[in-house]
Amino acid sequence: MAEMFIMAIDQGTTSSRAIIFNHAGQIVSSGQLEHEQIFPRAGWVEHNPDEIRNSVNEVMGQAFARARINRHQIAAVGITNQRETTLVWDRETGEPVYNAIVWQDTRTQKICDELAGDEGPDRFKEICGLPLATYFAGPKIKWILDNVEGAREKADAGKLAFGTMDSWVLWNLTGGQHGGVHVTDVTNASRTMLMNVRTLEWDPGMCEVMGIPMSMLPEIRSCSEVYGHGDKESLIIDTPIAGILGDQQAATFGQACFQKGMAKNTYGTGCFMLMNTGEEAVFSKNGLLTTVCYKIGDAKQVYALEGSIAVTGSLVQWLRDNLKIVSSAPEIEDLAATVENNGGAYFVPAFSGLFAPYWRPDARGALVGLTRYVNRGHIARAVLEATAYQTRDVLEAMNADAGVPLAELRVDGGMTANNVLMQFQADQLGVAVVRPKVAETTALGAAYAAGIAVGFWDGEADVVANWAEDKRWVPDTSSQAQVERERLYRNWKKAVTKTLEWVDEDVVE
């Protein structure tokens, strides 16, 4: 009998990928296509949903061709996705009513301020686990209904569907307007502000407050079950689609963080640290999000605390594309290594405000501490160090909320290839930083969820058995290093204060 595999579709912020995994959790082949980042105005970020729909089909074809297999050898397909990115489409035509509004987009700030009223941004935190912020999907749906001509009338008539990108990909792969399955999973639903984080059901009160008809919403299901099958026009005809996890939860699953207190950090466009808090939802007092970590079939859901950082890898892209200081992202490591320290320079990348643990939409980016001594090497180093400092901000909040200090941090994502950054990260956190052999943990997590649903893998035990350490960075614990660690972090905190209250009536974006 032919060997069987699992395919994961990773619909990310900057690209769509399809990765085929074998039973050992190793990559057999992959396909990847970048898609356009659309910036209609300052603070606005959009994606073209048709471009994404087409790219998903194309990368599946690439992965099949490179593996030299076809759909008959795929036991199941899993989907993982950029979370919070919001799309509304017409159920009858399958056409989007507007571009997808990306998680980084800040146009909904006024909506969030109005909804917060006198009660402040934590008004609904006890229901949905989230503060009112432009990050989440609910206010984005409201913006589309309020601003796109004819959208509200169609929504009230039950003709429109909302989805995060997992729902859009699933709906199209299972037939689109010809019987497509309109479903999301608990992890993506927990990022909309519309789901009760305890009951895992859409909350009628939240929908009413935001003016969103419940008829638009997808059905909420677990992360690991058969939702539907590839339609007759697709490359995966009759193949079960059986796993969905938002990208950060997928990475947590792929990193085998199944024990309470285990944590991972993904270094991508932004940085996202999740700590498993077990079967009870922990509500943060320190600026973190309460989110669903995963739910496997009929098993009880597992929760996480999350610290979301908006700008990390995208800061390196900005240095490359906007300032032309490097010509490729990997070059930044060599440039940073030309200097011994940051030369007193600190870069706070608050391009769309500050996310966890500050939640300050009025902040904007700042490069501070400059003297004539500072050169491009120091700026490159300050860019890398910004990621490590922001991660420490989140970890300190996590330790305070969870009451259990972290023993080690499991890491994944593109920036983990940067040794300068990873060593500095370990030194700043004072704990070991560990990278697994398969760095594509996001796609791997979605593959595991799908494979578990169809019996390809035998639950979490197989995930733990497949996980293997690749590299470990250990912090310098000498007394001199400890003093320097605290001096650097103290100056970082000072730098953060310089970014606050920048956006006011005089600063129109």
TrEMBL record:
It catalyses: glycerol + ATP = sn-glycerol 3-phosphate + ADP + H(+). Signal peptide: none annotated. InterPro entries: ATPase_NBD, Carb_kinase_FGGY, Carb_kinase_FGGY_CS, FGGY_C, FGGY_N, Glycerol_kin. Sn-glycerol 3-phosphate binds at T13, R83, E84, Y135, D247. Residues 6-254 form the Carbohydrate kinase FGGY N-terminal domain. Pfam families: FGGY_C (PF02782), FGGY_N (PF00370). GO terms for molecular function: ATP binding; glycerol kinase activity. Its EC number is 2.7.1.30. Pathway: Polyol metabolism; glycerol degradation via glycerol kinase pathway; sn-glycerol 3-phosphate from glycerol: step 1/1. Inhibited by fructose 1,6-bisphosphate (FBP). Keywords: ATP-binding, Glycerol metabolism, Kinase, Nucleotide-binding, Transferase. One of its GO terms (cellular component) is cytosol. PROSITE patterns: FGGY_KINASES_2 (PS00445). The keyword Nucleotide-binding applies. ADP binds at T13, R17, T269, G313, G414, N418. SUPFAM superfamilies: Actin-like ATPase domain. ATP binds at T13, T14, S15, T269, G313, Q317, G414. The keyword Transferase applies. NCBIfam families: glycerol_kin, PRK00047.1. HAMAP family: Glycerol_kin (MF_00186). Belongs to the FGGY kinase family. This is Glycerol kinase. It comes from Brooklawnia propionicigenes.
